[in-house]
Amino acid sequence: PAPLTGRAVLVTGGSRGIGAATALRLARDGADVALTYVNRKDAAEDVVRAVEALGRRAVALRADSADAEEAAGVAERAADALGGLDVLVNNAGVGLLGPVEGISVADLDRVLAVNVRGVFLTARAAAARMTEGGRIITVGSCMALRVPGPGGTLYAMSKAALVGLTKALARELGGRGITANIVHPGPIDTDMNPADGPYAEGQAALTALGRFGRAEEVAATVAHLASAAYVTGAEFAVDGGHAA
Ligand code: NDP
């Protein structure tokens, strides 16, 4: 039987890339899915249709993770739409690479608002709504484990913050039977980081496997964590050996 049958899932940034692959994978495993997007309504609706084609319920919610109220409110909206909330996948994130001298205060605020503040607010609201068996899975980055060169100051800082959030949430929520874990993708072929982009070859060379990963390969680990009961506060590299 599908391991997530009857479970209600919220995937932030579920319209494209790793989030879209995760929404589809969790639906294939039996879950009903709410997903957020910020600009690409068309892409979000494609994912909704693909989930519905699997016989599961799906809803696309516009919610900008950079907006504190929207980030805090979306867990409740998802729970209302699906009749509860069992699993949160904090996936929405933005990348910004470049020399530390060139990072403006506006860059700093924007990246931290989406990658850290929004994750905190959505996770807190989701946890308030969850019951025993709840799962919070956050998408970090291989850059939280190993920074292989210059230009990653802001992005690596933002993703490393999520490790602290995950471990602390695991401690805070463990007594209620709710787990919190973090998955660190390596270079994954998406719009954010295309496998044929200008920096792709160098990134592939930094992995032990010598290649980019596919969004589905990250989704597989998220799916495992969505049903695992005795795993919490843990970090999982899905990075082709980038951290090895
Ligand atoms: P994409 O850029 O391909 O997709 C980003 C998704 O997040 C889209 O669905 C987008 O919505 C959504 N999103 C972006 N900003 C916001 C926002 N402010 N509020 C709500 N949703 C938002 O990214 P990836 O799939 O590559 O990345 C997903 C996660 O994985 C990110 O957290 C990223 O940092 C992380 N990651 C990615 C790696 C990679 O190599 N690809 C490596 C390591 C980590 P819309 O479609 O509306 O724009």
UniProtKB/TrEMBL annotation:
Gene3D superfamilies: NAD(P)-binding Rossmann-like Domain (3.40.50.720). One of its GO terms (molecular function) is oxidoreductase activity, acting on the CH-OH group of donors, NAD or NADP as acceptor. Residues 7-191 form the Ketoreductase domain. InterPro entries: KR_dom (IPR057326), NAD(P)-bd_dom_sf (IPR036291), SDR_fam (IPR002347). Keywords: Oxidoreductase. SUPFAM superfamilies: NAD(P)-binding Rossmann-fold domains (SSF51735). Belongs to the short-chain dehydrogenases/reductases (SDR) family. This is Oxidoreductase. It comes from Streptomyces mutabilis.
